Amino acid sequence: MTNYLFSIASNVAIFSILALSLNIITGYAGQAMMGHAAFFGIGAYSAALLTNAGLNFWLALPACLIIAGICGAILGIASLRVQNDFLAITTIGLNFVMVALFNNLEIFGGSLGLATKKPYLFGQRMGNREFFFLAVLVVIAVCFLIVKMRRSWFGIALAAINNDEKAASSFGVNVSQYKILSFILGTAIAGLAGGIYSHRMGFIFSSDFAFVISIQILSMVVVGGLGTIRGPLMGAILLGVAPELLRSASDYRNLLYGGLLVLMVRFMPEGLLGDGSPLMRAFAKIRVSLFPKKGGQSHG
Amino acid sequence: MITQQLINGLMIGSLYALTALGATLIYGILRILDIANAAAYLIGAYVGWYIYLSTGNIILTFLGAILLAGGLGVLLQKTVYSPILAKPQVIAIIPLVASVGLFTISNDLVRLIAGPGTKAYNFSFPVESYRIGGLVILPSWILIFALTATLLLILWFILNKTKLGLAWRATAQDSEIAKAVGVDTSSAMALSYVLGYGFAAAAGIMVGILYNSITPALGEVPSYKMLAIIVLGGLGNPFGTVIAGIFIGLTEVLASVYTQIPIPKDAIAFVVLIIVLLIKPSGLISQKNKT
Amino acid sequence: MKKLLGVLMTLSLLMSVTACASGGSAAGAASSGGSSGGDSNTPIRIGFFTPESAAAAAADGQSARQSAELAVKIANDAGGINGRKVELVAYDDGLDNTQAANIAEKLSTADKVDAVVSGSYSGPTRVAAPIFQDAGIVMVAAYAIHPDVVNAGDFIFSQSFPGSVQGTAGAKFAVENLKAKKIAIIGVDLDFGKELSKYFKSYAEANGAKIVSEDYVAMSDNDFTSIISKIKNLNVDMIYSANYYAHASEVVRQAALQGLKVPVLGTEGADSWQLLQTAGEYANGLYITTNMNRDDKLESTQKYIEEYEAAYKMQPDMVGASVYDAFQVLFAGFESVGTGDSAALRDYISSMKDFETVTGKLLYYTKSRSAVKTVQIQQVQEGAFHGFAVIDDSKIIDPTNY
To answer: Can you list the alpha helix ranges (DSSP code H) found in A80-210?
Structure first.
């Protein structure tokens, strides 16, 4: 029983990392990144190949983070040359090309996929429970990172770029540099999630990182609330737990999922927990009525 | 032999051109990437199959499916896309996410209503194949060429010789100014969707006849491949799209037959796109109207 | 700080939500009498998963599910297994490996099933196998042929010939019966196509034939125009089509339309009414290696075909037949050793001999738990599959020889 719970929970935690990392690129820096699963995959395969070659899992994790980040840097530099609509398609294309490479190159196991070795923690083989806690630690670390980032010059610059790129540039903000940095950050973290994923699953397949997964991650961010921390988390939890809760309606799963996307984007594009969404405004009202301000500042 | 492969590539390219026209028309007016255009392709193929099964009349099949798809397009434009775009501060990916949701819904509806099994058109041509010299040309290919040319001619006529077409071109150039000088932008938008979804439906029926098989997964590859083609062809540029479609069709055939690259045919369009964008960031053929 | 609180809150929300959700179904399972024990009134619960909601796999998912339900219904109508009813605990994995892992965890813990049949493709089956192995629950993979599935452990069995057996049998038929000397291989770029082609090529080349061309096509790509045009120029005398029914149908159609008149040998992937429908008259003459013989005189085979067509208004195919047989194996096991002792079930299955199934006689299981059966060669004649030949050379059909 607990194995089942931890299976769902560790998956939700991994996708939380992915959603948070995508949000850095799409929510904060405003770049159209439609191929996030490609970096999820780069991290997953890198970590798998490293541990299969004998490297310790705990060293392979930072390694796959760096590898994914380097690839992200390349994408970031390339992204400077193309405008946003083109970028969307290019990232989709990148996703497809990576999956094709994963499926056709022997080093990645080709169409037979790649098996991974379960790592050890304090002498015990890691199971769903250990992966869950690992992923949660990473989630918390990423949240802290994002909070610090938002308050730093980096974050303020990103906000300015997101708002109006030309104006920001005229104020001396080094737009290119920050764009690349946001790509590096987002893709590196996605790669880390991949390293955790490939070892939790014990076996990875090229289709685990297909375009449809990129859409799933993007949906989590959009449904939860673009540009916030709570948004992607909410989205990951909602869309990760929903298939389990709705097992009886599993035949209609895609229908419900598509419907949710369209409804959210049409009526609540800021997301369920995005800034200014009906839910957040309701929370604020409740908070004010429970704790009326006395003229001082409320804590935030 | 290479002549045969060139003909093969031309045939596939024409089909791509036809399928991609819808997406480019929609981008030209609304500046959004509409993956749900492939929903029209899928629904057109299925609606066409039902019509053909009941009437046996191929003209009726095309007309019925095109009209239905066109109607569906206008409905989606008025209820989903335009309201989304009317909101302030719309990020580029939001309409794209909406189109993905719509496409997912349509895939599943087709699967649930028509069933997951394959359906066959069983449309028989008077002649099985034409042999000229050592070359083979199938009648279905001739139909593709003829259909694509006809629809392109109709498109050219509408865009260049009618008032509605003029309104379209004005709106595509700059929708705000167009509206300010009294151009019927709302009809222009509807036209994009009627033509765009209609053409996609025709392409869907064509593919169903070509392979004699339709399944709920029919639209999956065209949904994203067409986006690559319209970018290559200059977003919003119908004739550039045709050239790009044919170019990709030829490249796919020649690359898969004469080279050993480890990339499946369907990813070639993206590889070409990435290479082109790295060299020329404005695309193979520049956008007709820049905003 | 508020943000961190929010994070912790949402995470604990997650835990409690999932605890409630699965607590509900665990309670449900317990109250319906989870079947450890063998009490004659409790139902036998068999877990099952299949890709029904994924558009690309939905047809196979439907075939698998329908056969599973038919197997259970026929068993229950006949009075059950030793008087106990059989209950199907079926899930849809959406062809998503992560879903499959969750489902496997659920089946092996909350749902307390007595055994499992995998009605899904290689990816989900491969991911689920170690989970069932660790939980000590027997799983029979109906048609997934990834070589690593049975390697998960001694509780995991495979009901279908692996690629090594089917590919080699096909090559033997090609070389000896079709007298092929120059062969073109067209395969799907998944493990199915690659494995079959690898073994086909190996046997064919060792026995005097030459593979003059090898092409792999993505599942999503239906166009074979350029490949057939290319092959036409290579003077082949046979095409080996290692793919599924949509591709096999197109290969056969294009070859006929373009005037390439050579025999085509397909595989069990082509074994479906859908190929007969889309290829129409062009399918006549197509050979396939498969497990189900439509002309089998065996009563249970004909009964399965009749009941399936009556219940579902479509013909059964390889996927469905394999699933049906996986259930028959489990039924035989439960009849003999009851439930509650997975090790006994495992040992029973491992030592099965000459078990009649709708897909021929299951001769025995190898030490690595792969089923050994004769390979059927069927040919499409007048729009239907008919028996043509049988490959029963034990050097070929026993997977341990590879």
So the answer is: 84-104, 128-151, 153-163, 165-170, 175-201
